[in-house]
Amino acid sequence: MKELEEKILKEGHALSENILKVDSFINHQVDPVLMQQIGDAFAGHFGNKGITKVVTIESSGIAPALMTALSLNVPMIILKKQPSKVLNDNLLQTVVTSFTKGTSYELTLSHQFIQENDNVLIIDDFLANGCALLGLIDIVKESGATLEGAGIVIEKGFQNGGQKIRDMGVRLESLAIVDSMTDDSLTFRD
Ligand code: 5GP
After folding, report:
1. pLDDT, tens only, 10-25
2. Which of 23, 103, 111, 163 sits CB 3.0–4.6 Å from 28 for a disulfide?
3. From the CB of 131, is ligand 1 less than 6 Å away?
């Protein structure tokens, strides 16, 4: 997606050879116009799939997932990063290891929000080694719903998450795929 790639080149920067900082438009401050374009782009990719729910993980996935849900006119569901004391009935859970923080957390969904007859689209901000997305996929499968695919705002193509997910046969659409990055250069896959 051209607008996204331009924004990454202008405002993103590599914190290390593995971590891309996009705090000024995705992770901390959010650019609503770009988010709307991102939501419309995902809706364009998956609009013919009969999506009934868009699912993401708190917190950076919420903005792109919400705009996608708005564009598809369906609800968005936020998977919580810890077991909720309030929602302790009928919970689906799986453990995910965080790439950026190096810690583990329990991903939690209240089953009532995703049921067997749902067609689910997963949206997240980044794909690195695939742990977060695999956790999301696990929970959707546990719910008995149909997984229609996953949309990622920025995939880091030099890490192996994308390969893993595509090898599983999951339809994966990434709006920008970064193939390499250093302090002063960043290249995208065509
Ligand atoms: P994975 O589970 O695929 O290894 O990592 C995905 C999760 O880690 C994303 O949900 C995102 O929150 C975070 N993440 C991974 N790589 C980056 C990165 O380069 N920059 C930022 N800001 N977050 C990242």
Report:
1. 999 999 889 999 999 9
2. 23
3. yes
